[in-house]
Amino acid sequence: MPQVVVDVVLKPEISDPQGQAVLGALGRLGHTQVTGVRQGKHFVLDVEGAISRDDLERIAETLLANPVIEDVELHLPEA
Amino acid sequence: MPQVVVDVVLKPEISDPQGQAVLGALGRLGHTQVTGVRQGKHFVLDVEGAISRDDLERIAETLLANPVIEDVELHLPEA
């Protein structure tokens, strides 16, 4: 069954306390090569039958993300 | 600055109430072509200087994920 991956990330200007917390923990553990962390959501959708890229974009942008504060990256299976 | 993406997904045998809730909402809104949803976490790490793939795997598997219930997918920048 084809799978569509949707990554939802905070817009760059939105602060990310979860990512900051992870970054702080990595630094305290000595992983100072990591200089930034942003945390988002990762959805894997099983898709059956015909669904257009437009429909998937609409689902991703309106139902999986909050478009006020989040951006969406859609990864379709290779045709 | 190179970015490393780490996707953390629940192992297939672990139930995913968040994904089930999204799937239910999609069905009620008529998007019945979507037959499964799994929700995970998506981390984007900024990496500076030398860090090995092994180190990144260790960070991802021990600090970003709970290896008892989650699997990790590492996406390194192309060399």
From TrEMBL, chains A, B:
Keywords: ATP-binding, Cytoplasm, Ligase, Nucleotide-binding, Purine biosynthesis
A GO term from the CC aspect: cytoplasm
Gene Ontology molecular function terms on file: ATP binding; phosphoribosylformylglycinamidine synthase activity
Gene symbol of the encoding locus: purS
Pathway membership, UniProt: Purine metabolism; IMP biosynthesis via de novo pathway; 5-amino-1-(5-phospho-D-ribosyl)imidazole from N(2)-formyl-N(1)-(5-phospho-D-ribosyl)glycinamide: step 1/2
Organism, scientific name: Geodermatophilus obscurus
Protein name (record): Phosphoribosylformylglycinamidine synthase subunit PurS
Primary role: Part of the phosphoribosylformylglycinamidine synthase complex involved in the purines biosynthetic pathway. Catalyzes the ATP-dependent conversion of formylglycinamide ribonucleotide (FGAR) and glutamine to yield formylglycinamidine ribonucleotide (FGAM) and glutamate. The FGAM synthase complex is composed of three subunits. PurQ produces an ammonia molecule by converting glutamine to glutamate. PurL transfers the ammonia molecule to FGAR to form FGAM in an ATP-dependent manner.
Pfam families with a match to the protein in the record: PurS
Chief location: cytoplasm
Record's subunit section: Part of the FGAM synthase complex composed of 1 PurL, 1 PurQ and 2 PurS subunits.
EC number: 6.3.5.3
GO BP terms, alphabetized: 'de novo' IMP biosynthetic process
Reaction(s) this enzyme catalyzes, per UniProt: N(2)-formyl-N(1)-(5-phospho-beta-D-ribosyl)glycinamide + L-glutamine + ATP + H2O = 2-formamido-N(1)-(5-O-phospho-beta-D-ribosyl)acetamidine + L-glutamate + ADP + phosphate + H(+)
Annotated NCBIfam families: phosphoribosylformylglycinamidine synthase subunit PurS, PRK05974.1
Source species, domain of life: Bacteria
Record's subcellular location: Cytoplasm
Similarity comment: family membership: Belongs to the PurS family.
InterPro entries: PurS, PurS-like_sf
